[in-house]
Amino acid sequence: MLTTTRRGISYPNPDRSDRADISLHISTVALAADADVLFQQGTDAARQAAPHQSGGGKFWWATDTALMWYDDGTTWRQVQTPQLSVPNTQTANYTLALADSTKTVEMNVASANTITIPTNTGVGFAIGTTVNLAQLGAGQTSIAAAGGVTIRSYNNNLKLAGQYAMASVIKRATDEWWAAGNLVP
């Protein structure tokens, strides 16, 4: 932990070596704010199996996916944490995974390649999840939908425009996503 000299506030190390006790750091902030909030950490599977907190107010740090979740009492909602974004570089066709939430998937492929958005039953992204896509290599990257998934984009453009082009996909409903960015037919 890094501690400021002026106010004695502790922050995580830049290399995230102290991430294992993130719930302790967050609860310190909650105590200072006199907030009635519960913080837990564990695997994403354990989060999904955990009972909801009556009235909400529970946060969960998923140690296996590095994602923060909030329980509003009935539904788990992903807390967007772009500061934790680390590029996920792929060298072949790729299907998005839950760990890609709020991150950038870079396609470093010399030939044409595809990023596939899976069904909600395959990967349960929270509604509102954003995944950034980048074409790092020379091969054109296309965005494809798994069976039952709908991708909405301007003019149905679903190919990144070229090397170093970027786009984002945003989950708007159970099996429905927006795609926007530097996309071409």
SSE topology:
Layout: E1 2-3, E2 10-11, H1 22-32, E3 38-42, H2 44-49, E4 58-62, E5 67-71, E6 76-79, E7 88-90, E8 94-95, E9 104-107, E10 113-117, E11 130-135, E12 141-145, E13 150-152, E14 159-160, E15 166-173, E16 176-181, E17 183-184
What does this structure look like?
The protein has 185 residues and is mainly beta. The chain has two helices and 17 strands. The chain has helices spanning 22-32, 44-49; strands spanning 2-3, 10-11, 38-42, 58-62, 67-71, 76-79, 88-90, 94-95, 104-107, 113-117, 130-135, 141-145, 150-152, 159-160, 166-173, 176-181, 183-184.
In the residues, how many domains can be counted? 2
Helix content: under 10%
Question: Which sequence of strands runs across the widest sheet?
Answer: 7-9-11-15-16-13
Average pLDDT taken over every residue: 83
Number of strands: 17
Shape: elongated
Q: What is the SS-derived class?
A: mainly beta
- From the N-terminal CA to the C-terminal CA, the straight-line distance is 48 Å
Name of the level-1 CATH class of the largest domain:
Mainly Beta
The tally of helices reads: 2
Report a brief summary of the structure.
This protein is mostly beta strands.
Task: Tag the structure with descriptive keywords.
mainly beta; Jelly Rolls; single chain
